[in-house]
Amino acid sequence: xxxxxxxxxxxxxxxxxxxxxxxxxxxxxxxxxxxxxxxxxxxxxxxxxxxxxxxxxxxxxxxxxxxxxxxxxxxxxxxxxxxxxxxxxxxxxxxxxxxxxxxxxxxxxxxxxxxxxxxxxxxxxxxxxxxxxxxxxxxxxxxxxxxxxxxxxxxxxxxxxxxxxxxxxxxxxxxxxxxxxxxxxxxxxxxxxxxxxxxxxxxxxxxxxxxxxxxxxxxxxxxxxxxxxxxxxxxxxxxxxxxxxxxxxxxxxxxxxxxxxxxxxxxxxxxxxxxxxxxxxxxxxxxxxxxxxxxxxxxxxxxxxxxxxxxxxxxxxxxxxxxxxxxxxxxxxxxxxxxxxxxxxxxxxxxxxxxxxxxxxxxxxxxxxxxxxxxxxxxxxxxxxxxxxxxxxxxxxxxxxxxxxxxxxxxxxxxxxxxxxxxxxxxxxxxxxxxxxxxxxxxxxxxxxxxxxxxxxxxxxxxxxxxxxxxxxxxxxxxxxxxxxxxxxxxxxxxxxxxxxxxxxxxxxxxxxxxxxxxxxxxxxxxxxxxxxxxxxxxxxxxxxxxxxxxxxxxxxxxxxxxxxxxxxxxxxxxxxxxxxxxxxxxxxxxxxxxxxxxxxxxxxxxxxxxxxxxxxxxxxxxxxxxxxxxxxxxxxxxxxxxxxxxxxxxxxxxxx
Length: 657
Prior knowledge:
Layout lengths: L1 H74 L5 H18 L3 H14 L5 H17 L4 H14 L1 H7 L1 H19 L3 H11 L2 H4 L4 H12 L4 H22 L13 H12 L5 H24 L1 H12 L5 H9 L3 H44 L1 H45 L4 H51 L2 H20 L1 H9 L2 H19 L2 H29 L28 H10 L15 H15 L17 H11 L3
């Protein structure tokens, strides 16, 4: 007993000494993981705050920084600061007015400056504004329209310098926008067309508005580049073509006549320019592409004339501005206004932050130089940083492992609870009942729907019947008229087609079969003795049935105690003959029949006793019973009394089953 107690004490002591340290180790790991988690959260929150603040500052200044980068590109072209300031202000105004990008506005200024040299600050700003308005009106981009304006300036440089670059650019923008509107083209196609035409039309003295009208008309049926190429071919072959046709298409100074006058001259010479003969002569004179230009313009001279008239009236940028403003979306305009506000605030803050950024850049530059001057110190600092990051990573790994283990344990516990859960059957039954109830409800709905359809159909049918009845009730004469007409038609048809119907009916197989059956029935009647034989057989059958019935009734009555009826039937009379036939009746036979069956078939009503046969039977029964033996007392003497077993046996034998 002492040994067992000592062994138990040893086990308990060992358990206490082992479990306590293990519990402390477990608690230490848990505390370490929790502290690591808290520290990581704090570090993450701090870094998130720092990064968030930096991102917020950067994002708030990003529009202004992009604007300054675009201004820097223009500044690199040697533009003065006053021009940049004017350009920046105009860009912000344009972005708010037309819901466009201020950065794209500034970037397009570089294209304009590259295409048109020697622009002043105001000219650069004005022409850039014109190209951007034109891009908005023609649904193109600012870069394309800036290049288009530069190309057109180089083609019409003399006219532009004479008119003034700003005024010429505004007129060009107005005519371009109107041409896009009139001829359903776009700025990119016009740019390609004028690039193909080049300066040849200008060298022939053709005004810019006429070039727009011709190229716009041609662009309706072909691409912009193709239209420009064919227009150029027309000028190249104009001199030779006019000489072949014997007409003059230039004035005294060698300039090309207006295009409408050219078409009138050719029509006066060749007649209809769209005819086959005129097309062949134009093809021979101006070549294929030149002839296509004349034919295309001759098909719709009214449109060409209208375009020339309206384009010639353009003096500024009004039409382009109207088209651009019509496409402004208020929501986009509000967004552009907010963006312009951010640019303005950012540009006011950037000069204040520039010294700080310069200082930070200097510090970074100095540290970079020190890393090159003191490589060992740089290496030691790098190792320290790596150790710190490694420790942080280890703590993060420990936290992740502890959290993952807890998550796995929680998943296992959840799975075990799910597997040991006894509510699956209830859920399954609930789902089954839900499905059954849903199916029942669907069936009821379907049945109700079908009954509704049937009811609607019956109501419709009832309505139709009511309408017919109402019509007939309202005018019953109609039925009489219909019946009379049908009867008259039947009678007339029977009279007219009686021979055909009878001959057709008698020759049919059905009529022959009916005739054969009737003949067979007639033969059967003959074999039965005719109608008299059949009547005799039927009468004998009826008499036999009644005789058997009466005999059976008498036998049943004789089974009643005290009843004894003797009944016998004599020979019955023969069946009466059919009309026209005499049937002799034997008086003796009739009298014999009456005498033998007087008690059953009386000859008259007086032969039946009062109360009928049942009263007679009851009287006879009563007399018979009264003639029996009358007993006053009945004594039974048994010398040997029965015991219980014998009594049961006797009762069992007396009572069957």
